[in-house]
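Working notes for the structural subgroup meeting. M.R. asked for a predicted model of this chain before we commit to crystallization trials. I am recording the input and output together here so anyone reviewing the notebook later can reproduce the run.

Input as submitted:
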Amino acid sequence: MRARTRHVLPARLERARERVERWRRTLVREKEQLGRELQRAQALVRAAQRSVGITSFTNGSRVGAKGKGTKRRTRRVTVRTERTIEALRQPPEVAASIDVVAKET
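Returned structure, recorded in token form:
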């Protein structure tokens, strides 16, 4: 009787392994299908938001460069830009004198 159980046990284990492997493959297929359904639903939500006029925020648009939830810092106006803006607002004669002064410094 022991000889018989030694041969039957590996066959039972092999069948159990096959059942577990089949179950795992089924779960993997189900996971992939659910992922596709999620992507479809998200695309539909984005399309509906665009049609209504709601802007959707992506991760990069509201989060700082480091991704810690910080707001983006506003860019400072440089001195050269300030001089150019001032020169453009002045009459041409005054703007020319500003450029000469700026080049000398």
